[in-house]
Write a structure and sequence with these properties.
heterodimer, A: mainly beta, 4-stranded antiparallel β-sheet, 52% strand, globular, B: mainly beta
Chain lengths: 115, 113
Amino acid sequence: KAGVTQTPRYLIKTRGQQVTLSCSPISGHRSVSWYQQTPGQGLQFLFEYFSETQRNKGNFPGRFSGRQFSNSRSEMNVSTLELGDSALYLCASSLGQLSSGNTIYFGEGSWLTVV
Amino acid sequence: QKEVEQDPGPLSVPEGAIVSLNCTYSNSAFQYFMWYRQYSRKGPELLMYTYSSGNKEDGRFTAQVDKSSKYISLFIRDSQPSDSATYLCAMSAGWTGGFKTIFGAGTRLFVKA
């Protein structure tokens, strides 16, 4: 069974640009959540999508947004990139919503460097 | 004070040693407790998942949750060089605004052959 797939794996962007990251969940999983991981702040929750609706949101500015499609695939967008957005962005999928105690399975992540 | 505290290490042990990794937390609402292993430049991999207090064993790994002390532990028996990784604790709870999962900072473990 294929795991969570994230693309692209590595990318470099310039300050002020915007970026879109893609995530394909494990087959049959309907919840997709996104996380940012940095050496300074660790792993932080961005948001969760379930049935194409955002169900939970972490404490990040509005520049961070996402969406989920009918096939459960998800995209995350960061606009007006700042140097501090350089991080590993992780997508995780679960069978049901996080609030039901479903365990999450992470992808390999997308390494974003903002210069 | 952070909601979840985890010693970042690094922790260096010889092969075959018993490793003890710990996290403390402040929010008594946490109900679900997880341990993840993350190798360098990879995504976290779920190792153990526990609901509420108690022990759970899986092979060389044992997870303990003590809700009264707000303390969770992961024990690794007969540690191997392949166990060298960063170990993240995580805990989740529902609240009126939704649901949240908080991760510890991660402990870097080195197992020397």
